[in-house]
Specification:
The protein is an alpha/beta fold and about 180 residues long. The chain is built from eight helices and five strands, in the order αβαβαβαβαβααα. α6 crosses α7.
Length: about 180
């Protein structure tokens, strides 16, 4: 099920699914979506978080299957976070992700965080399996035309006001870098 980033908080308030795939090239927005899922999972009793990084050189895909078969000693539920920086797990990764979905504890939450996923990958078996088991959140960069409106929304969300000239100066200064914009 596709969920738009701006509607993720409302979707999480309605129902916590067992699988989330957050993908995109905008680090701030990807991080914020992941933080929403982590916070909601923690509130739902996921007191343990296991992070598996598929981007490291010595990574083996059966690590995620070990995670699925290992019960936590200290938590009833756990959040398993798999990071796939490239957005492409390959044949072995695809098989491991699909198998994980079959054998995982239904009380656990799976959060897959990846770089941008291309159109071809959205037709792959692993992507379709994750999408049908939970929610996919594709995060798109904020373009130059949308940046003023995005910044205006952030300023209002912080309970502040900004005039048009200051907003334009801020847009010029951050040059589309949302991490820098949030720090300003």
């Amino acid at each position: 099920m596709r969920v738009y980033p701006e509607k993720l908080a409302a979707a999480l308030d309605k129902e916590l699914l067992s699988v989330y795939l957050v993908s995109g090239d905008e680090p701030l927005l990807v991080q914020e979506c992941c933080d929403l899922v982590r916070t909601r999972a923690r509130a739902a009793g996921c007191t343990e978080r296991e992070v598996i990084d598929a981007g490291v050189s010595n990574f083996k895909w059966d690590e995620i299957l070990h995670s699925a078969s290992n019960m936590s000693l200290f938590a009833e539920r756990k959040l398993v976070e798999i990071r796939i920086p490239s957005g492409k797990p390959g044949r072995e990764g695809s098989a491991a992700l699909c198998e994980y979905l079959e054998v995982a504890n239904p009380d656990d939450i799976l959060l897959v965080v990846s770089g941008k996923i291309d159109k071809q990958s959205t037709r792959s078996k692993w992507y379709k399996a994750l999408d049908s088991a939970g929610a996919t959140i594709a995060v798109w960069p904020v373009g130059a035309k949308e940046l003023p409106r995005w910044l205006q929304g952030r300023v209002r969300g912080a309970g502040l006001e900004i005039d048009r000239d200051a907003l334009q100066m801020l847009c010029d200064r951050v040059e589309g870098n949302l991490l820098a914009a949030v720090q300003e």
